[in-house]
Structures are given as C-alpha cells and as structure tokens.
Amino acid sequence: SSVMLALFLLLSCWASIVESRVSFATSEVIDDVDLKGSNLASFRCYAGCRVYSPTQNKDIIMKNNNGNEFGSLADLADLTPGKVYELPESADLYWLSNKGAPDPSFVFYAVEKGAMNYDSKVLYLTQAKDWNITHSTDTKLTIMSTTGAIYFSNFLGDYSNAVPTVYAVGADSISSPDRCIPVYKPISASTIPQTSFPVNSPIATINFNGVGSDQVVLLSANPYKTTATGKDVTAVYVSPGYVGCNNGDDSLYTHLPLTTGFGSSITATDSSGLKVVIDGHYSIANEADALTVSVNGDGKKLYGKNGDYSKTYDDVTSVKVDVNWAKKEGSKDRFALQIDVISNGGVQATTTKDNLMTTTSASSLGMLAAIIMTTLALC
Ligand SMILES: *[C@@H]1O[C@H](CO)[C@@H](O)[C@H](O)[C@H]1NC(C)=O
C-alpha cells in the first residue's frame, strides 16, 4: 500500500542519514557524517572487536544495546602505542553515543575479532607530531589521522626486493573479500625515494609486502601537502574520502581536509627518453565534473561508473602532463590516479597492475542506485 511505501521511504531516508558509515566485511569506519544530526551511531562487534580513534573527545562514548557504557574516544586516543582496547562479543549492535556538542568531527574504526591482520598496529597521527615508521617493526601498519589527511614522504631504504603499497582502508580490508585496490603501487623501485603524496582519508594502511628492515617512511597529518611530481617520480592523486573497494559500498569518508580539487602540471625532459604510465580508477557521475588528464596535449576526460584508465606513452623526450579536477559539492564522485614518469635510464617496470575495479553485477547495482536516487529525491 502507499502507507507501507511511505513508511519504507521514511525509513530509507532515516537510513540514508544515519547509516552512511563506511562498512567493510570485517570492520566499520565511522566519522563526521554518522553523528551529524544524530546522537547515536551503531557499529558491528558481534565476535568482539578492537576499537580505535585518534580523536580527543571525552563526550563520545561507546555503549552496548543494554546501555552499559564503555570508554570514550579520548580513552582510545590516549592509549599507549601498542596497547589495544577490545570490546566483548555481543549479539546486538554497539553504539557511539554523543553527549557533547552536536555534529562532532571525529573518526572511529572497529575491527571484528578474527579479521585478517587483526593484530596489525594502528598509529594515531596528529598535526603535532610526524612519525618515521620502519618496516622492521611493522610489516603492515594502519594509520588514522585527526586531520583527515595522511602524507607519505621520505621513503628511505632498499626497495629492490619488495615495493610498498598504500591503501585508503584499514589493514583488515586490504585483501578479499572487500577487493580494495591500492592508491599507491610503485611500478618501479627507482621512483620510490622521490615520491611523496597525501591520501585525503582519515585512515590508510601501508603494506611493506616483504622482508627487509631498513625501510623508513615519514608520515605527517599536515592537511596542505600536495603530491611530488617530476622525472622518476610517482604522482598520486586521491580524491577526498576515496575508499577504493569493489564491494558495492559507494560510501566516502567525511572526516577530511578542505581539499576540493587538483590542478597539477608535471613536466620532465630527458634526451634518452621517458615513459609515462597512467593508472586510474574512478566513479564520476557527470561529464561536466570529469577528471581530465592530458599528456603533451593528448587529453582524456574520465567520468562514468567504476571506470579504469590505463595508458602508457613510450619514448618521449619531453613531457607535460596536466591533471585537473574540482569536486562537485555533495557528489559521491571519487577517484585514485597514479602517474609515473620514468626515464629510460631508470629501472624498468617489473610488476603488473591490478585491475580489480571492474563492474560486477551492474544491473543490481543500477537497481540499487535507482532506489537510492528515488529515496534521496523524496527525502
Ligand atoms: C625522520 O627521519 C629523517 C631521516 O633520518 C630525519 O631527518 C627526521 O628528522 C625524522 N623525523 C622524525 C619526525 O622523526
């Protein structure tokens, strides 16, 4: 009946406002949007879970469905590095309850017991302190940032046996079933020392992918950094809130710096020749909001749902690459783009590229999108 339909739409409206957290197979990331206009946000912890937050907020507390209260986000932020906070298993949902000022800015990560990389460490990054992380202590490290930005730079050490990858998700989600793809995956070890880039996300994971102990990477929460560009450099562009998983969830993170676009120009010359390798994944609704990439005047507009773009330019002696994108307010447009400019004298590409962002079950996703669009239009 129309009453049932109205009720359904009302519940859907409510759900679209409250249930917008970023969900993975074994974890959830809850941030600004989830306590916006609401004092409660639920999270899954059926098997028990470890909970993390870098946010100094005593007024957001965890509680179970019976109203039993646990610690606050500040209690999590204050934990000695290496110590973990574990909540007991529960057949019901847990809740974050905000008893302070409305619409707080925060980030919270709950990972369920038994998840892959459950024992991986989580580092809290604030603007007050940069960190040198070393591979010898952490093969995989998840980072959470109070500014919503995580800047990777100063890659030191020997990467000839294994190159590091960086993801915009927690360590539990870097392999199947979420099928999250990296935002940074070097195609040549020769570019790593010159490469630095921000991930505009409150959570990221670096996977060093192999043995070795002399690798060091500098991390900063500085929200104003841009990617390095040039010869033998990998330029990395990650749109604000990008998650990068092919699990049908198109949610974005909302605890972010003020980045609203990219306008970047890469130039390089080398008389012995250069190679330009472009690899991008994107979901951009409208042509007018396309991400544009142009190499020596050869321009490409990237837009559409779950698109991949790979292109290589070989043996050019002079390169000018322009990257432009401006975020459309309120859109769910998102992308990750990696551009390698490698001199012929540099180490040749050794690894193959992931192409996991292919469209699956397009029809059911299309149907879901239609329902969501209808609901949003009616809300
Ligand atoms: C990180 O390591 C570099 C190189 O050893 C050093 O110059 C820098 O001061 C270190 N920074 C921090 C925050 O430890």
Topology record:
Layout: H1 2-18, E1 22-23, E2 27-31, E3 40-43, E4 49-52, E5 60-63, E6 69-72, H2 73-77, E7 85-87, E8 94-98, E9 107-112, E10 121-125, E11 131-134, E12 140-145, E13 150-156, E14 165-167, E15 197-199, E16 203-207, E17 216-220, E18 233-238, E19 261-284, E20 291-295, E21 298-302, E22 304-326, E23 334-343, H3 362-378
Parallel strand pairs: 10-12
Antiparallel strand pairs: 1-2, 2-9, 3-8, 4-7, 4-9, 5-6, 5-8, 11-17, 12-16, 13-15, 13-17, 14-16, 18-23, 19-22, 19-23, 20-21, 20-22
Helix pairs in contact: 1-3
The protein binds 2-acetamido-2-deoxy-beta-D-glucopyranose.
The site of 2-acetamido-2-deoxy-beta-D-glucopyranose has 3 residues, from loops.
Keywords: Signal
Signal peptide: 1-20
Explain this structure.
With 379 residues, this protein is mainly β. It folds into 2 domains: 2-112, Jelly Rolls (Sandwich), CATH 2.60.120; 121-364, no CATH class. The protein is built from 3 helices and 23 strands. It has helices at residues 2-18, 73-77, 362-378, and strands at residues 22-23, 27-31, 40-43, 49-52, 60-63, 69-72, 85-87, 94-98, 107-112, 121-125, 131-134, 140-145, 150-156, 165-167, 197-199, 203-207, 216-220, 233-238, 261-284, 291-295, 298-302, 304-326, 334-343. The two termini are 19 Å apart. The site of 2-acetamido-2-deoxy-beta-D-glucopyranose has 3 residues, from loops. Residues 1-20 form the signal peptide. Keywords: Signal.
